[in-house]
Amino acid sequence: MPRSRRPPRRFRGGAWALLLPTWLVLGVFFLAPLVLTLLVSFRQRGVYGGVEPVTDLGGYITSGAFLSNYARSFAGIYAGIGWRSLWMAVATTVLTLAIGYPVAYSLAVRVPPRWKDLLLGLVVVPFWTSFLIRTYAWMFLLRTEGLLNQLLLGTGVVDRPLEILYTELAVMIGLVYGELPFMILPLYASLEKLDRTLLEAASDLGAGRASSFWRVTVPLTAPGIAAGIVLVFIPSLGQFVVSDLLGGARSMLLGNLIQNQFAVARNHPFGSALAFELMAAVLLLLLAYALYMKRKGEEVLL
Amino acid sequence: MSGPVAAGRWSRRALAAHTALIYLFLWVPIGVLAVFSFNTGRQTAVWRGFTLDWYRRLLANEALLASVRNSLVAAAATTVLATAIGTLAALALRRPETPGRGATLALLFLPMVIPEVVLGAALLTFFGAIGLRLSLVTVVIAHVVFSVSYVTLVVRARLAGLDPALEEAARDLGAGPVETFRRVTLPLIFPGIAASALLVFTLSIDDYVVTSFVAGVGSTTLPLHVYSMLRVGVTPEVNAVSTLLLAVTIALIVAAQRLLRVSSSEGERT
């Protein structure tokens, strides 16, 4: 921003007062709970739930007991759940990118201007509507006596109803369905900004359609792709509604496991350790994203 | 000669077909859900005739109505608090020389990216540790935490599009800082504030994950109640309540988008 366009000085010296409510609310009810959770993750579950008191702090630390929740999370079934969550999140991200890019391209480049607002709105609305209800819609469609099976049976495509609901396939469909708008919108934002003359230049220089797409369009929209990946991967990794409603007993994800430790197993220390691992994974991804955007000289889109 | 042109036409058609299919994928499930909320049959996958019975039943469902009341109270309180706090922060963050600007931006960024299940778990642990009983108060606190960032984001965008000359003109004409703010800045950014309030209301009324951790006995919100209904099974009542919630969300979002669009085109004109 050029210096002359700087907003006039107001509330001189009082800016901190305007920031005070934010720091109070987020300091007390966001940062403090996170710090507390980190501390709890080093402790052990008490006999009646709660947290076991530590009598010998030195011994507790030197024996490595404070890391036992973390050690447990990397072993046996918990490691399996972790890997499956990671795999599902990666698959969701790849699928939404592959499906969403052409849609964003259509919206940004092909759609006539008078349709644009409506078509964009039709992506924005699901972006904001309840994940819960959008997941329920798939329960309704996929169940054994649901509409999809009625349709398939009625047209004779299958002679026995497909058992899709409560499988990993159902979870995958639900995740892709739920996250797709979060991929399309950042892609659209970067495709919209694309300088069309560069594509003309590529074509004048003899590049074919495919070559100018892969060598001009895709690299220039890389920041949008990165933002889409971040926006889809993070919620998919911590997802628990979709897997709880559409998945069976065997499709438990990290999100369900964490929720379980708090709601059912009452093992807050173990749940806290899992929550911190999830958060560390997310923060690492964000750090990579921020570094990438900085190198590209782009403004972080989030 | 016609080779590349024909290929181009073909790829255009494939792109259009793909886009149309994805729009169907996005909207057919929601559409089907809504249509079947008006179906007479209890066996919900077969259309038997039009009825409003399921909606009438909702009105007689005391537990559901109580959860709607809880949701409305929580969403209203969250909207007022988050909009006020977030707008104040946006105003302070407007000046590059504001102390702690970078740290505040980072602080506001985190709640938007932290997995909801982590936020819910952390708040539950925290409320337990400070001895705050789970109630609508804890629900409102949690909702303010995850929505205040969105307010700052939207209002900051609006402030960034503001022409400083307008405020300078007001100052040159003798208006003090307070008067300039009240009569120039505030009216200009009001559409942004109103839009962010609508978004906060939507976020709050729709939230399930964080709320499921911090709601106590008697503070069940609508999404929590719906969740317990649909875990039991698919019924036309669930379709009806989902359709209503969907309709409310769509109305709020369309209104927010309108506000933002109208205000941005006004900005272009000036």
Description of the structure:
The complex is a heterodimer of chains A (302) and B (270). Chain A has helices spanning 15-41, 57-62, 68-73, 76-110, 113-128, 131-142, 147-154, 168-192, 196-204, 209-220, 222-237, 241-246, 254-263, 268-295. Chain A is an all-alpha fold and 302 residues long. Chain A is globular and about 75 Å long. Chain B has two domains: 2-38; 63-269, MetI-like (MetI-like fold, Orthogonal Bundle), CATH 1.10.3720.10. Helices cover 80% and strands 0% of the residues of chain B. At the A-B interface, α1, α4, α5, α6 and α7 of A face α1, α3, α4, α5 and α6 of B.
Strand and helix order of chain B: HHHHHHHHHHH
Name the CATH superfamily classification of the largest domain in chain B. Answer: MetI-like
Which range best describes the helical content of chain A: under 10%, 10-25%, 25-40%, 40-55%, 55-70% or over 70%?
over 70%
Average pLDDT level of chain A: 87
Strand content of chain A: under 5%
The CATH class of chain A = Mainly Alpha
Shape of chain B: globular
Multimeric organization: heterodimer
Radius of gyration of chain B, Cα only, in angstroms? 24 Å
**Terminal residue distance of chain B:** 49 Å
Q: Helix- and strand-based class of chain B?
A: mainly alpha
Task: Provide the number of structural domains of chain B.
Answer: 2
Question: How many helices of chain B?
Answer: 11
Proportion of strand residues of chain B: under 5%
Number of domains of chain A: 1
Low-confidence stretches of chain B: none
CATH topology name of the largest domain in chain B, in short, is MetI-like fold
Number of strands of chain A: 0
**Largest sheet of chain A, if any?**
none
